[in-house]
Amino acid sequence: MVDTPTADTPAEPDISHVNPAAGETWFGHPRQLARLFSTEMWERFGYYGMRALLTLYLTKHFVFGDRAATGLYGGYTALVYLTPLIGGYLADQYLGAKRAVKFGAILMSLGYFTLCFGGETAKPYAMIDGARHEVQIASVAGEEVRYVVDGASKLKIKGNDDGSVSLLGANNEAVRTVAKGGFVSEADRSPFYIAVMLIALSMVSVGNGFFKPNISTMVGELYAQGDRRRDAGFTIFYMGINLGSLGSQILCPFLADAVGWWAGFGLAAIGMAFSWTLIQFDGGKLAGYGEPPNKEAGKDRALGIYAAALIGIPIFYLLFVNLMNMAPPVEGSGFVGYIASLSLMGKLLFGTFLIGVPGILIWSFIAGSRKEFQMMMAAMVLVVFNTVFWTLFEQAGSSLTLFADRNTEPQMFGIPISAGQTQFFNAFFIVALAPVMSWLWTNLAKRGLEPSIPVKFGIALISVGLGFLFLVWGTAYVGPDYKVAMLWLAGLYFIHSFAELCISPVGLSMITKLSIARVVGLMMGVWFLSISVAQYVAGVVAQFASVETVGGQVTNLKVSLDTYVSVFVTISEVSIVLGLILLALSFPLKHWMHGVK
């Protein structure tokens, strides 16, 4: 109860000017953090639930080959990391973070909902020496088997080690053998439903650009300059990311398997709708946060920006179509031929990155001091290695998911685990390891032993390689079914989660500390551009692990296993070598960083 001044008690001037609600806390932090935490958690629930399904959806429902599916997945995730550059700028200059988050949440929810409408499963067929044959799918002993219909006969399809295909009769005897290249798997797909799927991906990409950078901006606004709770607040906030992804990567694949693809995507849409509800109906709790910048009265450009964003959807749609129609590079054409064969999206990403990085360094050499130039050089070296890290780490949603589907036992300790659900391992280990890693770095810092940023980056790269080697080690113990125990895949994600915690938390902070003050925003853009490029290249790398399939199913699990092992060994060798190179470079880089930690 507030005392009312009387004649006997003269009023004292109000010198606090503090909103009483500002004193309310949530675990020692502003109460608004709880709402933003929940908003982010449900947004990540939707995003990671959908991501867990996407590659499998493309290969099983639309019956795309591995090359098309992993390429499309890489292009989609590349746009997801690229659009925040534009969304963050528009919010800073015109919309304000809160309106940007609301708009992004609506678009993403509608995008996930649109994915629920996939139509009938594509109907596979095979071209055998130029002649078309129907492919039928039957269940034998609980497993799907593909047959070629040849007149009145149904012949089982079996891929051979040399690339040829045998067609087997009733007693599994080879009725016919088709030479390598003579058997081509295809499918009748509805152009309409493919268009619906690509429009949905475009909506999510645009919406993410408005949501992702601006929810973090609002968290930053909760704390005054110099407030020591800021870092801890962001740590709590980012925990919401992993809690959301942990739940959805279990539930969405479960529903997709038990009910249908529409149910898995529908749950992602519901999660995203919850996120929008929390920010839209905040009861005034977020008043004053994420508001539009002070502009001239009567010049609110929000409607124009929303309209322009919607125009971005057909533009992204065309980029996806171009990506899907990309022809493979001609053998022997070299690096130039490879670049020429890239999709329009790939050319734009690579071109911007390859021109931007040297361009910024040239500018910093001319405009900055010797110290500033050296710090920018250190930042750019780390940006390049960061690109390599995420290229290899982000095999999780593409080649590793397909490996889980084809060459991994679908259970661990008697608990069924589907291929889509395997991505939850990463979120689980991040939640479990984050406090341990925080304690480790803090204690090492007290003793003056905490590794420098370049050393942490190097450890992360080496660890990614070791994770793939661990999985390859497990393939030595496969049985006649050519499937590894789920425990080996879980071990890979454990090692990769440790690697992620070595590089991810320090990346953005490193950029802000090493950049020349006049171009911090531009350097942040380069950082996100590097991750976007990495996502695209990750799709390209996954294409090297492409396996021939018929109706979404591999015809020779031994060939499939050998293909994955070969690619994973190459990835591990590249990652470990580059990690060792970065460790060797850590000494001059530390000098160039001039005390930045």
Automatic annotation (TrEMBL):
<feature type="transmembrane region" description="Helical">
    <location>
        <begin position="457"/>
        <end position="479"/>
    </location>
</feature>
<feature type="transmembrane region" description="Helical">
    <location>
        <begin position="70"/>
        <end position="91"/>
    </location>
</feature>
<protein>
    <submittedName>
        <fullName>Peptide MFS transporter</fullName>
    </submittedName>
</protein>
<dbReference type="InterPro" id="IPR018456">
    <property type="entry name" value="PTR2_symporter_CS"/>
</dbReference>
<keyword id="KW-0812">Transmembrane</keyword>
<keyword id="KW-0653">Protein transport</keyword>
<feature type="transmembrane region" description="Helical">
    <location>
        <begin position="103"/>
        <end position="122"/>
    </location>
</feature>
<feature type="transmembrane region" description="Helical">
    <location>
        <begin position="485"/>
        <end position="508"/>
    </location>
</feature>
<keyword id="KW-1003">Cell membrane</keyword>
<feature type="transmembrane region" description="Helical">
    <location>
        <begin position="302"/>
        <end position="323"/>
    </location>
</feature>
<keyword id="KW-0472">Membrane</keyword>
<feature type="transmembrane region" description="Helical">
    <location>
        <begin position="375"/>
        <end position="393"/>
    </location>
</feature>
<feature type="transmembrane region" description="Helical">
    <location>
        <begin position="335"/>
        <end position="363"/>
    </location>
</feature>
<dbReference type="InterPro" id="IPR000109">
    <property type="entry name" value="POT_fam"/>
</dbReference>
<dbReference type="InterPro" id="IPR036259">
    <property type="entry name" value="MFS_trans_sf"/>
</dbReference>
<feature type="transmembrane region" description="Helical">
    <location>
        <begin position="262"/>
        <end position="281"/>
    </location>
</feature>
<keyword id="KW-0813">Transport</keyword>
<feature type="transmembrane region" description="Helical">
    <location>
        <begin position="192"/>
        <end position="211"/>
    </location>
</feature>
<keyword id="KW-0571">Peptide transport</keyword>
<comment type="similarity">
    <text>Belongs to the major facilitator superfamily. Proton-dependent oligopeptide transporter (POT/PTR) (TC 2.A.17) family.</text>
</comment>
<feature type="transmembrane region" description="Helical">
    <location>
        <begin position="424"/>
        <end position="445"/>
    </location>
</feature>
<dbReference type="Pfam" id="PF00854">
    <property type="entry name" value="PTR2"/>
</dbReference>
<keyword id="KW-1133">Transmembrane helix</keyword>
<dbReference type="InterPro" id="IPR050171">
    <property type="entry name" value="MFS_Transporters"/>
</dbReference>
<feature type="transmembrane region" description="Helical">
    <location>
        <begin position="232"/>
        <end position="256"/>
    </location>
</feature>
<dbReference type="InterPro" id="IPR005279">
    <property type="entry name" value="Dipep/tripep_permease"/>
</dbReference>
<feature type="transmembrane region" description="Helical">
    <location>
        <begin position="520"/>
        <end position="544"/>
    </location>
</feature>
<feature type="transmembrane region" description="Helical">
    <location>
        <begin position="564"/>
        <end position="587"/>
    </location>
</feature>
